[in-house]
Structures are given as C-alpha cells and as structure tokens.
Amino acid sequence: MRRKIATLLGTVMVAGVMSLSMPVASAQVGYPPGPCVPGNVVVDYGTRVIGETFNIRMVTKCLWDPGDTVNITVNDQPAGSKIIDAGSGVTVNVTVSSATQLSINDPILVKGGCGENKAVGVSPSSAAGGALESYTALFRVNCAAAPARASAVPGSVAFTGANILKWGGIALVLMAGGWLLVGLSRRRRANPTV
Q1: Contact indicator for 96, 102 with CB cutoff of 8 Å
Q2: What is the mean pLDDT of the chain?
C-alpha cells in the first residue's frame, strides 16, 4: 500500500513540475479577424442557344450587403442594376434574343454574340472593408443550334402565320350577301303581288 501511495505521489509531483515548464496560453493575435480579402468569383454557365432564357445567381465570396445596389455589365456594356436581396446576392435573367442581341432582366437590350459572353456584377462589401467585390458569369452562345426561321423579304412586314385580311374580306362579302337575301325574302312576303 505504501508503494502505491509513493508511486501516486511521485506521479503527481512529476505532473506538477511539467505543468510549470509548459508555456502559458495567451490571447490570439489579430482577433477579431481582419476583413475578408476581396476577389472575383468566376462561374461558367455553359452553352446556350438562341431563344433560350436562363438565370444567373450572383453571390460573392465577401458577401454583398442586402439592400445595396449591384451594377451589372454584359460584354462590357452597362446593363442596369439590381438591389441585393436578403441572401446577399442578385438574380440576373438573360434571354438570348438573337445571334447579336441579349435581353437582360427583360427590358435592357445589349450586344451579344456567338461564342463567349460575360455578365459581371460589382458592388462594395462591408465584409471586405468596403472594397469592391465582383462576380463574373461566363456563357457561350451556340448560333449553329439556332431554330430554323422563315426568311422574310427585306422591307416587308414579317409573316406570322395569320392572314386575316383575305378571309375577313370573304366573310364580309358572304354576310352582305346573306343580309341582301334575307331582306329580299321579307319584301316578297310583305308584298305578295310583286
């Protein structure tokens, strides 16, 4: 029993000496952490075709501040701005109108082209100490996969498939003929001597 107590006492003394020789924990240096380091987020949105509509969800590494405004450019052309939502991002709607034109958020038309196109959103971020934070969306337009369209004669109105003028005229002639026949038959009944 005395041996067990001596061994236990020796272990406690060794542990005490070791704890005195260990360095004392100190506070972290640089806390709280510094601002987020801004950088450009780049995302590939794949290949699109003429007539296709898709959404680009822009959320940056150093989050934008909800309620602020993101300035949007498409192929280095101004394409309006959007208010940052509660998720610290914006959703940009893109329609590939033609081989040379894109519609951004429906009302804004910008030049586009076959091949690579890019949409960029830029806004300051308080998480980045007020520095500008940007998001770049890359997408390609495959013009070879465009749907076939009827060719129009230059200077003429596009034919949409409805030719109501001819059929409307025929209907008017038939209705006038019907009214004439009804009117004549009523006259004959009113004047049986005629």
Answers
A1: yes
A2: 81
Sheet holding 115-124, edge to edge: 40-49, 132-142, 115-124, 69-74, 77-83
Q: pLDDT, tens digit, for every residue of 80-132?
A: 999 999 999 999 999 999 999 999 998 899 999 999 999 999 999 999 999 99
CA torsion 161-166-168-172 (nearest 10°) is -170
Among candidate residues 89, 123, 120, the one with its CA nearest the CA of residue 104: 120
Task: Give the pLDDT score at 87.
Answer: 95
Task: Say if residues 101 and 147 touch (Cβ distance below 8 Å).
Answer: no
Burial of 62 (0-12, 13-18, 19+ CB in 10 A): buried
Give the three-class secondary structure for 90: strand
pLDDT digits (tens, 9 = 90+) for 22-75: 555 555 555 566 678 888 999 999 999 999 999 999 999 999 999 999 999 999
Greater model confidence, 5 or 10: 5
Angle at the Cα of 74 from the Cα atoms of 116 and 59, rounded to 5 degrees = 95
Q: How far apart are alpha carbons 9 and 12 in whole angstroms?
A: 5
Spatial contact of 177 and 184, defined as CB atoms under 8 Å apart:
no
